[in-house]
Task: structure prediction
Amino acid sequence: MKFATKAIHAGQEPEKVTGAVTTPIFQTSTYADDKLGINKGYDYGRTINPTREALEKNLAVLENGKFGFCFSSGMSAVHSVISMFKPGDHVICSDNVYGGTYRLFEQIIKEYGIEFTFINTSDNDLIKKSLKKNTKLIYVETPTNPMLGITDLEVVGKIGKSKKIITCVDNTFITPYFQNPLDFGIDIVLHSSTKYLNGHCDVIGGCVVTSDKGIAEKIKFIQNAIGAVPSPFDCFLILRSLKTLAQRMKAHNENAIAICEVLIKEKKIKKIFYPGLKNHPQANVIKKQMRGFGGMISIDLGSYKSAEKFCNGLKIFEIAESLGGVESLICHPATMTHGSVPKRMRVKLGITGGLVRLSVGIEDKEDLIEDIKGAIRLT
Ligand SMILES: Cc1ncc(COP(=O)(O)O)c(C=O)c1O
Result:
């Protein structure tokens, strides 16, 4: 089966009692036993819920994995993965991860005795050099937020397998429509489903997918023990949104490519970061592991003043945190999504005062281009 068909059908048999074609919202916290100690496979809503089950099965199929788990946010999905490790363990992490992931690792988890090395995971040799005897996890975001840097998944997968290190990829920015990390030997893929998976800026959610039974057992245990599970209604909304993921991603990709072509010609734009650029430094890796470039573009306008004028001058793009919705958004990472990353690290990564991140929506591209051209004139 191809992607769009799987997105519409996987995990979603007609409901057993009525034949309802759409998986219902099972809004219940508990389930009655037939007799003491005998139930229908459902006991308590934190542990199991049929709407969540359908979503978990669907996501596992879309990511070419065997087991899916849903969470109440992307951050709780990240937290569930890091909760598999213990004091004394060492983690190698992409230095340009989402600011909230950096904050969780650096300000909370580190305090529990887990050691982190943040490096540019685009550099294969640097990953190898950063390995320690106690390295237990390589955690990668690719493409990164907001610099759109790329890590070679095949290389990370091979290092992980040869050294018995668990590997995890945050696939939020590009989605399973364009990239399946598990196909490259990665053990765990996770998402903020708040973004493209749900795609309508109306749900906060997260998910984890793996094909490894041992990892799946641990994540299932953590999901139930910590209890950061999504509501049945949110699961219903994400399940419904996934039915159009293929069509939405095609439109995001097409619009972003068209916008990039315009941006390249604008002298006021100092730098453009987009995986679809012909001169992208990792074009070969992109070709190997991605089937498209996605809808995220970052541009550097040279100064905070110009970035401010550009953002304020846009009429269709809303200034907002988040990304991946049908509506176009713009954000200023240094003061918004990556405000919790120390300034020296932001500067090293290129998250300057002049950098803005566009989440290109699926509106008509002519309107988006006109909006951008108008705002550039004001800078
Ligand atoms: C790449 C990435 N991962 C994880 C998260 C965290 O997700 P959530 O906001 O759903 O908790 C975000 C949020 O922006 C993100 O961009």
About this structure: Residues 245-377 form a domain with the Aspartate Aminotransferase, domain 1 fold (CATH 3.90.1150.10). The two ends are 48 Å apart (CA to CA). The CA atoms of residues 47 and 224 lie 5 Å apart. The first helix runs from residue 3 to 9.
